[in-house]
Write a sequence for this structure.
């Protein structure tokens, strides 16, 4: 059996639109490229239903289908993909090193595309009942809750999208939001608010998440009058934003105060040869199409860097 290659020109960490696009460009530039995908390849679009705003699909495309197509395209271009999780990196020495639980890989350049993860409310019951009625992914779990009442927490586009999607299964969907107006774009709000299965609870915070073997109810507090409200439901979907996946980068490259990767010129991180693309840096646009474009930019930057460091 031949020994697995561990030294690459470029290693990409992460398999969302940024990572896959970077892979396509790196391989087309004839660099030996490894993409380490993480244990749940495909990133956040794996949790999305219809993607209507990715150019090239006039009828829209399902998120997981888009990601599978990107993966196949990336592999066809020659990028090797490993479905493993990076546990540590060493960017302080050359070559740059990246380790999974079982292997260590070396590279002359690295592109970090680790994305972001759903933010948690931070209550004990949230963890206790995670996977037992508490979910962060309507697409993954919505179908388990046919004809039940469901709760969605959040006031952004994600909350609107999840709530609207869940009305396919639920009898009623309660949106719980801590303020008196949504952050979501007007079109997403209108879509949700015009759905007669959706009820909105403004000015309410989630104080407790309770259940027995599985999730049963939330205790809400109306922040205007301090009234406590008990809302029983079959499931609770938390859709309150994201946290960057940058833990493995701490102490290795510069991060901003919220843990997002800080960049200087375009996609350059604080370490020469290490580039970054997608939601682990970008908390402003956060779109599949911007992440893909960003992945392309990082690959071109890595290519130019390698040309200058032969
Ligand atoms: P977001 O825009 O950051 O919204 C997060 C929401 O959760 C806000 O309403 C926020 O309340 C609330 N929230 C935050 N922390 C909370 C906490 N601890 N407890 C209770 N509520 C909390 O996040 P997002 O909705 O995930 O969207 C992220 C980005 O992706 C946005 O740019 C969005 O446009 C984009 N996106 C687009 C689509 C689409 O176009 N199809 C779909 C999904 C997401 P406050 O408003 O009070 O801060």
């Amino acid at each position: 059996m031949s020994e697995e290659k561990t030294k690459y020109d470029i290693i990409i960490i992460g398999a969302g639109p940024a990572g896959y696009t970077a892979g396509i460009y790196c391989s087309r530039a004839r660099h030996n490229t490894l993409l380490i995908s993480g244990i749940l390849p495909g990133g956040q679009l794996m949790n999305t239903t219809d993607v209507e705003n990715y150019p090239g699909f006039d009828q829209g495309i399902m998120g997981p289908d888009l990601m599978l197509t990107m993966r196949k395209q990336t592999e066809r271009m020659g990028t090797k993909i490993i479905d493993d999780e990076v546990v540590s990196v060493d960017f302080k020495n050359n070559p740059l090193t990246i380790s999974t639980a079982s292997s260590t890989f070396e590279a002359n350049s690295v592109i970090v595309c680790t994305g972001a993860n759903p933010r948690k409310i931070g209550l004990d019951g949230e963890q206790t009942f995670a996977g037992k009625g508490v979910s962060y992914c309507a697409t993954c779990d919505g179908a388990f809750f046919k004809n039940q009442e469901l709760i969605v927490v959040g006031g952004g586009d994600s909350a609107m999208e999840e709530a609207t999607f869940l009305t396919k299964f639920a009898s009623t969907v309660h949106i719980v939001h801590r303020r008196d107006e949504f952050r979501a774009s007007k079109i997403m709000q209108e879509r949700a608010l015009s759905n007669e299965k959706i009820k909105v609870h403004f000015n309410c915070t989630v104080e407790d998440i309770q259940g027995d073997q599985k999730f049963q109810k939330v205790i809400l507090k109306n922040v205007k009058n301090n009234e406590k409200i008990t809302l029983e439901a079959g499931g609770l979907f938390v859709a309150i934003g994201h946290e960057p996946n940058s833990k493995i980068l701490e102490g290795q490259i510069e991060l901003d105060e919220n843990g997002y990767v800080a960049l200087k010129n375009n996609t350059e991180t604080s370490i020469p040869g290490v580039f970054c693309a997608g939601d682990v840096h970008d908390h402003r646009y956060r779109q599949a199409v911007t992440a893909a474009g960003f992945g392309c930019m990082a690959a071109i930057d890595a290519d130019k860097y390698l040309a200058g460091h032969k």
